[in-house]
Design brief:
The structure holds 2 protein chains of 2 kinds. Chain A is built from 4 helices and 6 strands; from the N terminus they run βαββββαβαα. Chain A is an alpha+beta fold. In chain B, helix 1 packs antiparallel against helix 2, helix 11 packs parallel to helix 13 and helix 13 packs antiparallel against helix 14. The model of chain B has no long low-confidence stretch (mean pLDDT 88). The chains are: A alpha+beta, B mainly alpha.
Amino acid sequence: MRFMMIVIPKGYETAAPDAAPSAEAVAKMMVYNKSLQKAGVLLALDGLFPPSTGARISYTDGKATVTDGPFAEAKEVIGGYWIIQVRSREEAIEWAKRAPMASNEIIEVRQIHEMGDFPADVQKAAEGFENLPNAAAAKA
Amino acid sequence: MSDIHRTIEAVWKIESTRLIASIARVTRDIGIAEELAQDALVAALEQWPEEGVPEKPAAWLMTAAKRRAIDYLRRGRMLEQKHGEIARELEFQQQQLAEALDRALEQVIDDDVLRLIFTACHPVLAVEGRIALTLRLICGLSTAEIARAFLVPEKTLGQRIFRAKKTLSEAHVPFETPRGDELRARVESVLSVVYLIFNEGYTATSGEEWMRVVLCDDALRLGRMLVELLPGESEVHGLLALMELQASRNAARRGRKGEAILLMEQDRSRWDHAQIHRGMAALHHAQRLGGGAGNYALQAAIVACHARASNAAETDWERIVLLYDALLQIRSSPIVALNRAVAVGMAQGPAAGLDALDGIATDPALTGYHLLPSVRGDLLMKLGRFTEAREEIQRAIAMTQNKREQELLMEKIKQMRQM
């Protein structure tokens, strides 16, 4: 089963557009990333620019409204994620516990839906959806 | 199982390989190393529910295992020196021993993990023993879990592991990474074990379950570990590519009622395209290392041809035939020749496929192999020779134990009635 470990760094909601982690923090993180890789569990990982560079699109009755970041009301924002393949929820939690996070930072662990988890009608609705962006990348 | 036990199990699955590997460096016997590590696990199972999970569970387990390793080595020394050495000297030696052990256990242990893998897959062992030891020592599976995955009684599996450890110990198999000429052959042995585990999951040889995804996942995990440990070995990348590309079809290989769906009929939008991407990257890596003509890399390249095509008709069958030709150059195999005949049938038409099949039909290795009549039946069906096709497919049904495959073949007979 696959899990997403979502990083929620405290203070990132108000971080400046050019905010970047220190070399020291990155070095620590690389040691951790390497341990995930060596254990054969790491599938993907990415870090995100601060919310001040992003935008939120909200929807009311089918109408989309765009708000540029930072988002004053947001208390928790996403800073990055890992996708890991493990055998249980507990194993995902154990890996999260080993991450070199600073005080007040949070990792949220969430299982990724596999198509087989969905009821038959939902699977049917997803059939024939050929043009997934990474499908194109795979063919390149 | 309680929460705390599930947590302990998860910690064990993460840590056991490194734990066993680093103790084995000191004991030089992986069977004993595993027993000492297991003792540490038992201690955790006793203490953690009372005291809570320690802040650094890996270090806790390592310390507990180390204490047991020292006891074990001390007992060995005592036996050697039972003729009344003075106690003080013995104590001094023990202290030295403890320090040596500390140094050993603090060092980088990647090499130990690699040694552990090579030892578990040692050619002195029967293939079944290699598979069981690998799942147990490298994947952290319990005897019960391995027995369940292979549909054998737990007792049988336990004996298999016991025998394998005994064989290693009696043959004095050194705990080391092979060098020079030996390395290539030993890497091959490791890769074949990993691929056998994968295939056991991918196509169960018997029973109702078409595949046991857990074994596929464990094999993939092993493959990813190996790529880190042996980055310069092109075939390691080739095998990872092959497994990623094959496993990317898992969701599409099973219908809603659990029925098998073969490659040509699969809904390719259900293939895991992120996984295909990883497989392609691993294949390119193998090719960059100059290993494009390796056994696993060639097989991966064939699967990659399918992964690139959005349906069977768009597949580059000519290229697949060439890749099979190259594969047959490395190793003549009637099974590969059979697959080549299928590709010829697609590239040049069913009559050409049938010709290719005739060339290998009398191969004794294919006697009793259900895919031979199954493929022949399919080609005959495409040529409109329904009576002969039906006979072949009925033979195939009688030859396979896999119920899902039987259903699939029955379906074909039904289709012909409607033609």
